Amino acid sequence: MNNLFKALNDPTRRQILDLLRGGDLNAGDIAERFDMTKPSISHHLDLLRQAGLVESVKQGQFINYSLNTTVLDELLAWLMSFQKTESPSAEIKTSEPTR
């Protein structure tokens, strides 16, 4: 899970994830949208892949990237497990005077 949080911590990687919400892209298409070197983008994509957030498939000379939302679903389920749920017996009780 540390790789996941490390990957999500960087704004460039979050932007890449946003781009991939629109559909699969190859590394070159992703790199064109950023003002940084292709090796830097490749590094970001590799960290996203290691975290399981993206999947890569080599097709000819291109590597196509797509979102893997399964990891995000698992993260959300884990986070939601910390949410307090009210049980029916947790209704507000009025205090009665003691006799």
From TrEMBL:
In this record, what's one Pfam family? HTH_5
- The UniProt record lists the keyword Transcription: yes
Q: Name one GO molecular function term.
A: DNA binding
Q: Which UniProt keywords apply?
A: DNA-binding, Transcription, Transcription regulation
SMART domains, from UniProt? HTH_ARSR
Protein origin, superkingdom: Bacteria
Keyword presence, DNA-binding? yes
| Segments forming domain HTH arsR-type | 1-87
Family annotation (PROSITE patterns): HTH_ARSR_2 (PS50987)
- UniProt-listed CDD domains: HTH_ARSR
PANTHER family in the cross-refs: TRANSCRIPTIONAL REGULATOR, ARSR FAMILY, TRANSCRIPTIONAL REPRESSOR SDPR
Q: What is this protein called?
A: Transcriptional regulator, ArsR family
**Species:** Spirosoma endophyticum
